[in-house]
Amino acid sequence: MRRLLPLVAMMACSRPPALHPDPQAFAYRSRSKVPDAAARQIAAAAAGDSRRRPPWSEPHPLHAAGGAIGDGRDKYLFGETRLYLGEYEPEPGKFREIDPKDDAAMAYADALFTVQQLQRWAQRHEIAWDVQLGRAKGRVGASGADSATRELLSDLSRRSGLGPEEAEMQRARLDEKYRDRR
């Protein structure tokens, strides 16, 4: 039995981690293993982006499968961006609901930003990404989003009633309107 555990662990790392259908989260994973040096750079860029542009719903750390970031080994990277907030608790016991139109605008803005991040990382490190929101799946590579991912973003755009530039401009207004969420 003890001899099987390393074999099982190695087999688990030989393919990317599964993405799970969640209509609230935009999930992503690298399609191939990423060199550790690139993983460290991507993790640092993700952390910096989160500080400069705080996520709407909750922080979305980057994770690694097949080893820890910084261990020197190639690994798969994965994460998710929670798109919808719905409501939050600004004070213990007091809840505030988000206007559904505001939530849709922020969901679109965060999904669009995440796709742009993935494209930048794909260009810099020659890796491609699988993405999923609910049952919708797509890919993002150095040349951008594939048609399935563009359709996913179009659906979010329709729900929000905003285009790409408008969604990003709404972020500042909505961050201010709901500033007590942090």
Notable traits:
5 helices; 44% helix; 21% strand; 182 residues; single chain; globular; alpha+beta
Taken in chain order, the helices and strands follow as: HEHEEEEHEEEHH
Distance between the termini: 47 Å
Whole-number total of structural domains: 1
Q: Could you estimate the helical fraction of the residues in percent? A: 40-55%
Shape: globular
Unreliable residue runs: 1-12
How many helix segments? 5
In short:
The protein is an alpha+beta fold and 182 residues long.
Write the layout of secondary structure elements.
Layout: H1 4-12, E1 25-30, H2 36-52, E2 63-65, E3 76-82, E4 87-91, E5 94-97, H3 100-125, E6 129-133, E7 136-141, E8 144-145, H4 147-160, H5 164-177
Antiparallel strand pairs: 1-3, 1-6, 2-3, 4-5, 6-7, 7-8
Helix pairs in contact: 3-4, 3-5
Describe this structure in words.
It is a single chain. This protein is an alpha+beta fold. It has one domain (4-181). The chain contains five helices and eight strands. It has a six-stranded antiparallel beta sheet with strand order 2-3-1-6-7-8. Helix 3 (100-125) packs antiparallel against helix 4. The longest helix is centred in the middle third of the chain and has 26 residues, at 100-125. The protein is globular, with a radius of gyration of 18 Å.
